Q: What sequence folds into this?
């Protein structure tokens, strides 16, 4: 088996509004806002604009009318590539049926009992 | 608002994606843009989102007309913030609608050409300053009751937009009530102005903010109630709606009666009376057919609202054209500079472009 894309998996697609748009319609931009110090930027919605400066201005007017925002990102919607389990099922199959990736599968640190299998390695 | 043919529930068992979708929604999970969804669901969410977005921006007009005539700088600042919020709510919702693969420019065209409509609530004039307070207290108050359950509507982007809207809507209602209280504690003329505005806006709020009757108890006639009930049942099965129109309408009346009493205002419905047995206020059922006819598409104010919106859009065309031309010229110049820079030392134009993508407030 090749290490490339699993068979039958459609290529990644972009988010938001349709990608191909007629001339003269402003591009869609996804807006990410860091609402407070210590948090990551969070997706809050989208705006339409012809260029990044205007997109930032519109995002500021729309998403930061209250509170004390720390920073804004805008990313063209057609530059965000996505994969979701619903449409790319095999792509995410590697996360399934692996209970051993969770700590509760193992013996607690606070009991005296030794693990059933007794693996020490 | 006509019922678009919803997917047949009988087919759910045979149709594997439909069954999975209904199980997801039934479990209270959110539907996200990339999920498979029945065509009827997509159309129903889209129609509601578009109508909602249109109502937010058309709703700016009656209050917006009073911005230049606010009685104090404080009230003016508040009203500007409120009307600006309504524009913002429209934009949140157009943004959510676009996740369903439509273009907001097409939705605006549909509004301008009369193929889609905004709530008829705003097809009334705001005649006095008291109307601004009444609209905020009653129609935004109705909106809060309508919209609080929409924060849990099944379509994820719609629910997220509504959480933002609801946070801001609470300010709208409070400032409206505050404005009404100031008038009611003022001169007899001011109090009379407040009562007059309430007399004109009560029925639009009760009837139009909640839609047609959809239970037998809420309707003046059984046919309208049956049609309304069929649409609401489908919307509730899909988790788009959480309550019937009539349930929310009753909740609104229950909340308004004591508020009006505190203001010393009379709600213009002689049938309003506390019903001990039901634990709710009784009120006159909405005669939807009569009311709809009176508010058809051809009324003066319905045409006026859309005409004003269309004129604003057309008057702004030169701004959009200039922005597009500027963007095209900048893009060409950047491309030329990029090639030039690439030939000598790499990445100068690129770095400049990246610097612009973050601002700190």
A:
């Amino acid at each position: 088996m090749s290490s490339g894309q699993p068979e039958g998996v459609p290529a990644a697609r972009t988010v938001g509004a349709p990608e191909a748009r007629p001339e003269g319609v402003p591009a869609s931009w996804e807006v990410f806002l860091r609402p407070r110090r210590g948090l990551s930027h969070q997706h809050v919605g989208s705006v339409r604009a012809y260029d990044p400066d205007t997109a930032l201005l519109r995002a500021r007017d729309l998403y930061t009318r209250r509170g004390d925002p720390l920073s804004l990102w805008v990313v063209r919607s057609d530059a965000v590539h996505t994969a979701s389990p619903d449409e790319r099922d095999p792509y995410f199959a590697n996360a399934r049926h692996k209970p051993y990736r969770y700590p509760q599968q193992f013996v607690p640190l606070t009991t005296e009992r030794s693990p059933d299998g007794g693996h020490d390695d | 608002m006509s019922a678009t043919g919803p997917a047949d529930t009988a087919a759910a068992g045979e149709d594997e994606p439909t069954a999975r979708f209904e199980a997801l929604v039934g479990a209270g999970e959110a539907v996200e843009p990339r999920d498979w969804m029945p065509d009827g669901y997509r159309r129903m969410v889209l129609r509601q989102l578009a109508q909602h977005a249109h109502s937010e921006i058309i709703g700016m007009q009656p209050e917006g007309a009073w911005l230049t005539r606010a009685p104090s700088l404080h009230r003016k600042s508040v009203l500007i913030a409120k009307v600006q919020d309504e524009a913002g709510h429209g934009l949140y919702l157009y943004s959510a609608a676009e996740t369903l693969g439509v273009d907001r420019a097409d939705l605006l065209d549909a509004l301008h050409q009369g193929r889609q409509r905004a709530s008829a609530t705003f097809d009334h004039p705001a005649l006095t300053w008291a109307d601004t307070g009444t609209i905020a207290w009653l129609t935004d108050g109705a909106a809060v009751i309508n919209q609080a359950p929409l924060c849990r509507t099944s379509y994820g982007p719609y629910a997220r937009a509504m959480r933002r809207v609801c946070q801001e809507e609470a300010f709208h209602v409070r400032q409206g009530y505050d404005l009404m209280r100031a008038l009611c504690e003022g001169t007899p003329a001011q109090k009379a102005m407040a009562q007059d505005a309430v007399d004109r806006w009560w029925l639009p709020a009760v009837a139009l903010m909640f839609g047609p009757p959809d239970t037998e108890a809420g309707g003046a006639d059984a046919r309208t109630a049956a049609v309304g009930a069929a649409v609401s049942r489908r919307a509730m099965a899909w988790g788009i709606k959480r309550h019937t129109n009539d349930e929310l309408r009753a909740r609104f009346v229950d909340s308004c009666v004591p508020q009006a009493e505190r203001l010393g205002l009379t709600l213009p419905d002689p049938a309003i009376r506390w019903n001990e047995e039901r634990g709710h206020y009784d009120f006159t059922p909405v005669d939807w057919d009569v009311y709809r006819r009176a508010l058809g598409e051809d009324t003066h104010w319905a045409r006026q609202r859309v005409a004003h919106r269309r004129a604003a859009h057309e008057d702004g065309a030169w701004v959009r054209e200039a922005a597009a031309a500027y963007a095209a010229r900048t893009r060409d110049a950047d491309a030329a500079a990029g090639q030039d820079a690439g030939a000598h030392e790499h990445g100068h134009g690129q770095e400049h472009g990246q610097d612009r993508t973050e601002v700190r407030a």
Observations:
- The CA atoms of residues 93 and 108 of chain B lie 12 Å apart.
- The longest strand of chain B covers residues 273-275.
- Confidence is low (pLDDT under 50) at residues 1-13, 345-361 of chain B.
